[in-house]
Structure prediction request, 500 residues.
Amino acid sequence: MSACEWLLAAITCVILYPAALLILSGPRLFTRPFWADETLSWLIASDADFSHAMAALAGGVDTNAPILHWIYRCAGNAFGHSPLTYRVVSAVAMSLGVLGVYDSLRRFALKLPSVAGTLAMVALPIVLSHTTEVRFYGYFLTAAVWTCYFVDRRFDRPTVANAMAVGASSIALCGTHYFGSLVVGCIAMFALCRARSSGICRAIDSVWPTALGAATTLCLLPLLVTQRQALAGAGGTWVPITSWRI
Amino acid sequence: MGPNHFLENLTTSISLLVPTGAAFILGAILALTPIVHRSSECEDTPAPSTQLWSLALLPVVMIAFDRLVQPVLVARYMIPSVAAVSALVCACVGPIPRRVQLGSIGALAVLFVSGSLALRARIEDPDPRSGMGVLAQVPIDDLPIVVDWRGHLLPIWAVRPGQRDRIVFLDDPWLTHPDLDRSIPFEREMVRIMNRFYEFPKTIGIYELSRMNRFRLVTEFPESAKQRMGDMSVVDRSPLTFVVERHPGSANAR
Prediction:
């Protein structure tokens, strides 16, 4: 992919995609009030006392990993802790994920199929509705996509820079959501299966930096444990038991 | 929410499960074939073998996690798997003629536009049970607001700073609902945790309600509102809100 094409893709994904949403879905998409879970993100990110915010997070006010709260905190301190600020930050994050999908597809496919694949993702209702959501899912998707992208790159060119990129994206993935470690597992398993014909050493070499993601989850384990303990009296989760009745 | 009828609830599940299921099958095939780079240097071989396929494994892993550890089957928890849908569409569109490819892109663009417009409609006319829907049902006035569901309380609290001192959470230990057996204790516990760190929301017991002469009840359980308020007068105002008044001489809410 040429630099010119990449620039065009970046402009389309990071500027035109949120702009299209703004036009089609209306400005209230970015200014609408928080719903319940979003209020929790805002409450912790806008807490004037950082250590109190982290204590509240550990105490179960929100039951997620902390990176996203830090991102909102930085953005809120710079531009104000308003729905608009938080939703724009979320939209930028999701847009970077869309760009990552295009870049990933483009490494292996031609332009038109890559555009179609990218467009198929952004047309999904779940992606549209989470683009401006002040929760974890846009970042989660973005971090997963970029981890995939950098694993592909690392497989092609096993440089230190690519290893660092895989490591950093894995840390972002696991620091955004606890299920990031499951995603890292999927990525590593697929990479090992896919690359077996090129030799197991090369396959391992392309995915070992994702271990930093798993290490991040280990580092967050005390936080997860205290959150789980705080909610022990309520069964630990609101998610109902799954029924497979059709 | 009761049992999580994940397969039954096709509107939330089908857009994720069906394409990722297909992506999983195709991804498994590709995982077992060697990597072939097919970028612009090889214009005639457009089948992708990108790492994005790996994300189609996520629903499978999550289903195993759900069975073995704890319930987790919520569509948004699996959102990374939508990237595998991209790889699937890319692989399907790759081999077809250029004109059909352009047609597919046009069709997908129409899907994007219609999805965005549907999102606009949901924002402008929110579901009455959603946070924004509830917010629209609560007028700005001097009545105390008693809310029995944290999901309704938080948006009102966040958006209406002028009414914060009049918003209370109804902590009702007898509250039950066959579909919300896990959510009700979870919500009550979350309110206690929030109180510990942020000293809000204020809570009120069901018997303390009888000391209030008049208040606005915002409830997740409108069907049982009148019964729960005992001999107080309950007037419907909107799907989830009621104005509750004590009859002269009545002592208890239950």
In short: The CA atoms of residues 153 and 162 of chain A lie 7 Å apart. The longest strand of chain A covers residues 242-243. Chain A touches chain B through 95 residues (CB under 8 Å).
